[in-house]
Amino acid sequence: MTHSERTSAQSTVDIAALPSVPKVLLHDHLDGGLRPATVLELAGECGYTALPAGTADGLATWFREAADSGSLERYLETFEHTVAVMQTPAGLERVARECAVDLADDGVVYAEVRFAPEQHLDRGLTLDEVVEHVLAGLRSGESQAQASGRRIRVGLLLTAMRHAARSREIAELAVRFRDRGVVGFDIAGAEAGNPPSRHLDAFEYMRDANAHFTIHAGEAFGLPSIHEAIAFCGTDRLGHGVRITDDIDLGPGGEARLGRLANYVRDKRIPLELCPSSNVQTGAVDALENHPFDLLARLRFRVTVNTDNRLMSDTSMSREMARLVETFGYGWPDLERFTINAMKSAFLPFDQRLAIIDDVIKPGYAVVMG
Ligand SMILES: O=c1[nH]cnc2c1ncn2[C@@H]1O[C@H](CO)[C@@H](O)[C@H]1O
Ligand SMILES: [Zn+2]
């Protein structure tokens, strides 16, 4: 065996081994990741009768197909059913606990999970109580994972809905809980018509508090949204950001010419929280093979791999990575790079990020690369 044959054999990804390598997830919605059976059981417990199917399998199929709509607005309508069953202390804690356990079972070692507290007040809980119950569920899921030999750490991001007017309040909530497990802030929801600058005071509050945030931008709307998120709001990361490719021209020989905004994003190493399957479902990209993930990765943007909504996309970190490997032919060194990109971009203190990279990620990839 020559050196290059050996190197390529060692770097070839065995799809079955994906759950065993350490993975880092920065963009995952708590209310988009419920187990179908849990949706069903919680609906029974809280008397929610509007579920679109009566079995776990039926629900799994319904969520995937309904989310496969080609439009972000229609995709978001499916959350009505998950949010409806996450209105009680028990419901919130269970969903959060199962989220941590499921991610750990998939080999995720560090995750930032997000949700919008303002959507969970229907049964009288306060914003603070909602966050407390979700944090309690995450801690209990971490312990449960550890008892079964899996180690995961989950940070919480608090999301404000961009069509609503509570972003400043949610930013304050995030800062109030910063030493109790909340690591940052975000805005989500329908992007077109709700530019990031509508929530400028929330972002200014976060910056004033030296606190971190990301912004869903460049998913259903293009460059103006990304520009505002960066230039006006000062975002640390871009949720999706896939439409940054609108500012990249490919010449006749395939050579890329970056516009000023694309250059800025790359120069400043602004992390892109790319969510391949979700982007195909919402129509941000027409097919996985046309996803700009690979172009952006080859141009050395700081790309990261994310699930967005595991229930709606019927996915997991391992499955997203498998889809990328099958579509673009990535090897283990590529997946390790995407994972380190994500860990570098986490909203954890620098020394803790480095410790996970050096003590967990690199040794984990060294095992599969031989
Ligand atoms: O990809 C997305 N783009 C924009 N908003 C989203 C996406 N996925 C989920 N949400 C929205 O975020 C809320 C809090 O988690 C969800 O309820 C959903 O409305
Ligand atoms: Zn999202």
UniProtKB/TrEMBL annotation:
Q: What class of enzyme is it?
A: hydrolase
Annotated residues that bind Zn(2+) are located at 27, 29, 216, 308
Presence of the UniProt keyword Zinc in the record: yes
Q: Site feature Important for catalytic activity: at which residues?
A: 240
Output the superkingdom of the source species. Answer: Bacteria
Q: Which residues bind substrate?
A: 29, 31, 189
Q: EC?
A: 3.5.4.4
Keywords, alphabetical? Hydrolase, Metal-binding, Nucleotide metabolism, Zinc
Domain Adenosine deaminase: start-end pairs: 22-362
Name used for this protein in its record: Adenosine deaminase
Origin species: Rhodococcus rhodnii LMG 5362
